[in-house]
Amino acid sequence: MSCGALEWGSLLEAPHATPVSPRRTPGAFHRPGPHQQEGPITAVYEGAVQDLIDELGRLPGIGPKSAQRVAFHILEADAEDMKRLAEAITTVKEKVKFCEICFNVSEDATCRICQDTRRDQTVICVVEESKDVMAIERTRSFRGRYHVLGGAISPIAGIGPDQLHIRELLNRLSDETITEIVIATDPNLEGEATATYLVRMLKPLGITLTRLASGLPVGGDLEYADDVTLGRAFEGRRALS
């Protein structure tokens, strides 16, 4: 047995041996541990490239590395494709607004759902965001109308009832043809707080209040639920006492 093997064997057998830390060379790459957050990418690019990365990084769900990948995809993509993308972004900001009745996104004063006389005029489904309307529409389980709150009650984020379209909902309920309100806020802490507040405000009006049935993932967002699960939750909605 070599001297090196004997030395290592003695080290492994020693009852109180101190582990030897691997030597790091200056500037060696260090991978963040499981409880460490990856820091932002240092601004190493010049001018327009770095400006694009910074702006993309401000979008929800896009971190520093994703912003960098998207930026370089834009640089390498066909110029006409990127021109159409830029025009689509500009157009949506210029043309799209919120429906005067339900606050869903619309290019007209009122959205196509509110304009559709074939929809059930007696039922209103209350959701947090316009993307929730799209999620429910995909299930083809609801033929009533909607009311978009524009968010959910969140004291941490500084959002209270006054920041949501709750007053406008109450104004809509002056129409005596409405017999049911479906509360379809997200099944998370903020969504449940919003639902509880709505029940307290709407219960004295004598209108039937319902909530989506169990089956949706707790803590999730309505928009991420698959169509079948969301459709079943809608069809099995329960009355709130």
TrEMBL record:
<keyword id="KW-0227">DNA damage</keyword>
<dbReference type="InterPro" id="IPR015967">
    <property type="entry name" value="Rcmb_RecR_Znf"/>
</dbReference>
<dbReference type="GO" id="GO:0006281">
    <property type="term" value="P:DNA repair"/>
</dbReference>
<comment type="similarity">
    <text>Belongs to the RecR family.</text>
</comment>
<dbReference type="InterPro" id="IPR023627">
    <property type="entry name" value="Rcmb_RecR"/>
</dbReference>
<dbReference type="InterPro" id="IPR006171">
    <property type="entry name" value="TOPRIM_dom"/>
</dbReference>
<keyword id="KW-0863">Zinc-finger</keyword>
<dbReference type="Pfam" id="PF02132">
    <property type="entry name" value="RecR_ZnF"/>
</dbReference>
<dbReference type="Pfam" id="PF21176">
    <property type="entry name" value="RecR_HhH"/>
</dbReference>
<keyword id="KW-0479">Metal-binding</keyword>
<dbReference type="GO" id="GO:0003677">
    <property type="term" value="F:DNA binding"/>
</dbReference>
<keyword id="KW-0234">DNA repair</keyword>
<feature type="domain" description="Toprim">
    <location>
        <begin position="122"/>
        <end position="217"/>
    </location>
</feature>
<dbReference type="GO" id="GO:0008270">
    <property type="term" value="F:zinc ion binding"/>
</dbReference>
<dbReference type="Pfam" id="PF13662">
    <property type="entry name" value="Toprim_4"/>
</dbReference>
<comment type="function">
    <text>May play a role in DNA repair. It seems to be involved in an RecBC-independent recombinational process of DNA repair. It may act with RecF and RecO.</text>
</comment>
<keyword id="KW-0233">DNA recombination</keyword>
<dbReference type="GO" id="GO:0006310">
    <property type="term" value="P:DNA recombination"/>
</dbReference>
<dbReference type="InterPro" id="IPR034137">
    <property type="entry name" value="TOPRIM_RecR"/>
</dbReference>
<protein>
    <recommendedName>
        <fullName>Recombination protein RecR</fullName>
    </recommendedName>
</protein>
<dbReference type="Pfam" id="PF21175">
    <property type="entry name" value="RecR_C"/>
</dbReference>
<keyword id="KW-0862">Zinc</keyword>
<feature type="zinc finger region" description="C4-type">
    <location>
        <begin position="99"/>
        <end position="114"/>
    </location>
</feature>
<feature type="region of interest" description="Disordered">
    <location>
        <begin position="16"/>
        <end position="39"/>
    </location>
</feature>
<dbReference type="InterPro" id="IPR000093">
    <property type="entry name" value="DNA_Rcmb_RecR"/>
</dbReference>
